[in-house]
Structure formats: structure tokens, C-alpha cells
Write a structure and sequence with these properties.
Blueprint lengths: L4 E7 L3 E7 L5 E2 L13 E2 L9 H12 L7 E5 L10 H11 L4 E5 L7 H7 L4 E4 L6 H8 L7 H14 L3 E7 L8 H12 L6 E5 L15 H11 L5 E3 L19 H10 L4 H7 L4 H13 L3 E3 L5 E3 L6
Parallel strand pairs: 2-5, 3-4, 5-6, 6-7, 7-8, 8-9, 9-10
Antiparallel strand pairs: 1-2, 11-12
The protein binds iron/sulfur cluster (SF4).
């Protein structure tokens, strides 16, 4: 059973993406109120080799023998990937083993560190989160480790955008009544307008069960208003425009296991149709595996029909 590799993940932004998790659940410099995972257990901004880089690479080599070349290999998962001290080595080695482009999904809190920026240069695409330019709102939304400050985050991101040659998509998680006031949006807009090399912006919201139940969902109307108020000459998409079923099945070469489904659903709730495509499995096979997991009490179906781990299901 694989520990570090999950997916393939169906994603409109990234097509079919193989996920690489570099931290144990849940190791992060933040403890966001909107997180869809459990509370942060290792709350740190100190980089470490949380798992052996060569073990991760060996697993990835093995999975790549079983699945068609993914559209992307994405470093993300159940914690903050830039906390792994072997990030640069891992990205460089992935380049040697496969032609798929690499992507890093990061909360951006370590971008003030020159080593982190240098290592991220090796990725083809970087998706940093940025929800606010104000320290009090930053603390309210992200509950960062005490030494992490928004100003360092903003400066790190600015320097990174000046030197990075790949594609950058900024993710803004919209929390109604917290970071969607006119003043908040104006601050974000002014800052983002001053950055170079931003390919796109993605407006996310609590479409899944957030960690703190009081976090409200910004519906499509609210996200549209947020987009209008940002008023930036950059493509801006929203979470509700991102449900994605791959056009063709992947070439996953072995029968899918319930453990494969569980690892994927932990990070990314999916519809049955998505599971059929990414695991190249029949409707009957996926039904059987889903039924097993339902009987075990590990997964449940959401209102929109997608499957998620119990505890992450929107009732
Ligand atoms: S949402 Fe991302 S950055 Fe925030 S606590 Fe969860 S894993 Fe960390």
C-alpha cells in the first residue's frame, strides 16, 4: 500500500493529477478555519525531512509503472509541502523520472525563505494561497504559527513572482464576513495588481465541510461579486466552475483497491463517475469498493452525490 502517493486526482485546473504527500497528516504552519482535514497536529514553520525523500521517489516510480503518464504530478496533500526540507531534491528527481510537469500547492507562508523560493523554481506551476493582506484577518483565517506574519508572506510572494518563470495561480479562499468586505478586497486587489507574472486567480470557498462549522460558504453570486470587486486584468475562476470528469479513462494498470479510493477521498472528495475514470474501473467495480467502505463506516455520500470520508461530509 502506498503512503505518499495518491490519486490520480481529477481536477479541472490540472486535468488528471498524481498527488504526492510529503508530510504526515496534519503538519502545517497554518490551522485554517476552512481546512477540510482535521486540526493541525504538528503546527510548525520549521522545515524537516518528515519522510525520507528517496522513499517518496521510489513509491512514485512504482505508481508511474501502473498509471498512464498523468497530466501533472502535484505536491500537496495533508499538510504544507514546502515544510519538507527535501522539496528541491524531490522536484529535481521527479523531472528525471517522468515528462509530466510538476505543480506545488502551497499556503505560501514559507515564501520569505530564499531556499524555499529557490527550490520552487524547479516546479512548472505553483499555486500559492493568499486570502488577505491584513495581519488580524490572516490570524483569524489561518491561525498561523506565532512567528508567521502576513507581511513576510506578501514580500516572499512578491520576490518569487519577480524571478519565477513558471505559471502562478493564486488561490483566494473566500470566507464570508471575514475577508469579503470592500476594504479587504481592495487591499488584495492593490497587492495583486502590483505583482508580476500571475497567470490566474482561483476563488475557492467552503464547498466541503470546513474545520470550523461557522465558516460560511460564498455561493456563486458572492464569488462573482468578489471577482468583480477585485477588478483585475487576470483570468479569475471559481470553485463552482471546477467540477471535472476526465474525458477518458486513465491507463491505471491494476485493479483499484479500496485503499486507493480511501487515500484519494481523504484529500479530494469525488463522484462515482470520477472514480471510474481515474481508476479505469467499471461502474460495478467501483460500486463494490464504495459499498465495502460504506459498510466499514469510513465514507459517506454528500448531497451533490460525491463521496467523502465520514467527518468531511456536508450533510
Ligand atoms: S487548508 Fe492547507 S494551509 Fe490551511 S491548515 Fe489545511 S492544509 Fe494547512
Amino acid at each position: 500500500m502506498y503512503t505518499h502517493i495518491f490519486g490520480p486526482v481529477p481536477s479541472r485546473r490540472l486535468g488528471t493529477s498524481l498527488g504526492v504527500d510529503l508530510t504526515p497528516t496534519k503538519t502545517c504552519s497554518f490551522d485554517c478555519i476552512y481546512c477540510q482535514l482535521s486540526r493541525t497536529t504538528t503546527h510548525t514553520n520549521h522545515r524537516n525531512e518528515f519522510c525520507k525523500a528517496d522513499d517518496v521517489l521510489e513509491e512514485l516510480r512504482s505508481v508511474l509503472r501502473e498509471v498512464e503518464q498523468p497530466d501533472w504530478i502535484t505536491l500537496s496533500g495533508t499538510g504544507e509541502p514546502t515544510l519538507h526540507s527535501g522539496l528541491g531534491y524531490i522536484l529535481a528527481e521527479i523531472k528525471k523520472m517522468n515528462n509530466a510537469p510538476t505543480c506545488v500547492i502551497t499556503n505560501g507562508s514559507l515564501l520569505h525563505l530564499p531556499d524555499v523560493r529557490k527550490e520552487l523554481m524547479l516546479a512548472d506551476r505553483v499555486l500559492p494561497t493568499l486570502c488577505t493582506v491584513n495581519q488580524s484577518t490572516y490570524e483569524k483565517i489561518h491561525r498561523p504559527v506565532s512567528s508567521v506574519e502576513v507581511l513576510a508572506n506578501l514580500e516572499g510572494l512578491r520576490i518569487f513572482t519577480e524571478t519565477y518563470s513558471g505559471a502562478i495561480e493564486i488561490e483566494i479562499f473566500v470566507c464570508p464576513e471575514i475577508n469579503d468586505t470592500d476594504q479587504e478586497i481592495e487591499g488584495l486587489s492593490n497587492y495583486l495588481a502590483s505583482l508580476k507574472n500571475i497567470e490566474s486567480i482561483y476563488l475557492n470557498s467552503a464547498v466541503r465541510m470546513p474545520l470550523e462549522k461557522e465558516v460560511k460558504t460564498a455561493d456563486q453570486g458572492k464569488l462573482n461579486k468578489f471577482r468583480d470587486k477585485l477588478n483585475l486584468p487576470i483570468p479569475i475562476t471559481t470553485a463552482f466552475e471546477h467540477s471535472f470528469v476526465p474525458a477518458k479513462a486513465s491507463a491505471w494498470n491494476r485493479p483499484a483497491l479500496s485503499s486507493d479510493i480511501l487515500k484519494l477521498l481523504l484529500r479530494h472528495p469525488c463522484s462515482k463517475e470520477q472514480l471510474e475514470r481515474v481508476f479505469n474501473a467499471s461502474s460495478v467495480q467501483i460500486d463494490k469498493l464504495l459499498n465495502e467502505l460504506v459498510k466499514n463506516g469510513t465514507i459517506a455520500q454528500e448531497k451533490d452525490g460525491s463521496w467523502a470520508l465520514i467527518g468531511q461530509v456536508n450533510g
